[in-house]
Specification:
Elements: H1 2-31, H2 46-68, H3 72-80, H4 82-86, E1 91-96, E2 104-108, H5 117-127, H6 129-137, E3 141-143, E4 161-169, E5 172-181, H7 189-212, H8 230-239, E6 247-254, H9 257-264, H10 266-283, E7 289-294, E8 297-303, H11 308-323, E9 326-328, E10 331-333, E11 337-344, H12 351-366
Antiparallel strand pairs: 1-2, 1-5, 3-4, 4-5, 6-8, 6-11, 7-8, 9-10
Helix pairs in contact: 2-3, 2-7, 3-7, 9-10, 10-11
InterPro entries: DGC-Regulatory_Protein (IPR052163), GAF (IPR003018), GAF-like_dom_sf (IPR029016), GGDEF_dom (IPR000160), Nucleotide_cyclase (IPR029787), Rev_trsase/Diguanyl_cyclase (IPR043128)
Protein name: GGDEF domain-containing protein
Keywords: Membrane, Transmembrane, Transmembrane helix
């Protein structure tokens, strides 16, 4: 009698599963495109199931960030860290690698807080062949045993196995995600294929997220301050060579900013620069432009402002915004700027010449 009951239960379970399978297949066929409708009873591909789940997780994160209006860098971190979490890494870090300029860590897991990350980034930029390989090939690189690899040359490292993942936006590498394990691990061919699929999805999600938020993370924005970068400045100059409309070009430089980095470290220095840049942005109109010219130098272009009184007011507003003290980790930091300006077309025929004149005037004020 017991066996009959067991067989009946099993039969009912099989009927239920079979019924649910048919129902699911019908709904799947409704969603799919006409070209690629799957066979009604074909089991789903494991790669597709995992990829769809991962993509769904990325979209959920992006939507949450949009709904809560979080900072761009936090949104980027929330999306990128999905990969090391999926890979069950012991630690991870994201190193931004601009072709010109200093490399630096933007995010990292908490268990790396004790490391001198400014020194590590500087060391990697000079002799980090493992990162350079990822940067140059734009492909993932796995090192099973770092001690046996001729590419590995890191002093401050607990990694036994390491995976370098290029993070791409619009086919340009913006940084390398370091995934570390403190014991030797293996990454199968299946996992490598999944990682490459995930990278395609991350690229699409990042483009979608930042375009929806009107803050696209592309080659025209500086990764730290989120204002336009030097490349965007050069493009703007080339596009406005024959532009005769009235503009004010301001060249500004932070005073003794190197001292802030030396005294408090580059991480605090980055936070200060990011905050001060945001204050400067809030001191000008939304249709005015600000470019990070290099390091702690910035170019501001004010549209249709020529009266000296108005210019002076804007300059004083910018200086006051920068001069207001900043508190970071119970540390009070006071900064200041030197700047010079030039009128277009009254004093210079184009933006490039105006920047040269404004730069010289800034230097005289700094002296």
């Amino acid at each position: 009698m017991v066996y009959i009951i067991i067989h009946l239960v099993l039969l009912l379970i099989l009927v239920y599963v079979f019924y649910k399978g048919i129902k699911t297949a019908i709904y799947v066929r409704r969603i799919a495109n006409e070209k690629d409708k799957p066979p009604a009873f074909a089991p789903p591909s494991p790669k597709k199931v995992i990829r769809h789940r991962f993509k769904g997780s990325l979209f959920e994160t992006a939507i949450t960030c949009l709904e809560n209006e979080v900072e761009k860098d936090y949104a980027l971190k929330s999306i990128i860290e999905k990969l090391p979490l999926f890979l069950k890494a012991d630690s991870w870090s994201f190193l931004i690698t601009p072709p010109e300029g200093e490399w630096r860590f933007l995010f990292w897991s908490k268990n790396l807080d004790f490391l001198p990350l400014e020194e590590v980034a500087e060391e990697i930029q000079i002799s980090g062949e493992h990162i350079k390989r990822v940067f140059n090939t734009k492909k993932i690189l796995f090192i099973k045993d770092t001690k046996k690899s001729n590419l590995w040359n890191q002093k401050h490292s607990l990694s036994k196995s390491w995976l370098g993942i290029p993070i791409m936006v619009k086919n340009e590498i913006i940084g390398v995600l370091n995934v570390d394990w403190f014991k030797e691990v293996k990454i199968s061919k299946f996992e490598k294929e999944l990682i490459n699929y995930f990278l395609e999805d991350i690229d699409r999600i990042l483009k979608t997220f930042f375009s929806l938020n009107e803050m696209f993370l592309g080659s025209d924005l500086d990764i730290l301050t989120q204002v336009y970068n030097r490349k965007a400045y050069e493009e703007y100059v080339s596009q406005h060579k024959s532009d005769s409309s009235k503009k004010v070009v301001i060249f500004l430089d932070f005073d003794n900013f190197k001292q802030i980095n030396d005294d408090f470290g580059h991480i605090v220095g980055d936070q200060v620069l990011k905050l001060l840049t945001k204050r400067i942005q809030n001191s000008i109109k939304s249709d005015d432009l600000i470019f990070r010219y290099g390091g702690d130098e910035f170019v501001i272009i004010l549209n249709e402002t020529s009266e000296t009184k108005n210019i002076d007011k804007i300059i004083q507003r910018i200086k006051l915004a920068v001069k207001t003290p900043i508190t970071i980790k119970d540390t009070l930091i006071i900064s200041s700027i030197s700047l010079g300006y030039c009128l277009v077309p009254e004093e210079a025929s184009n933006i490039e010449k105006a920047v040269e004149i404004a730069d010289k005037r800034m230097y005289l004020e700094k002296k």
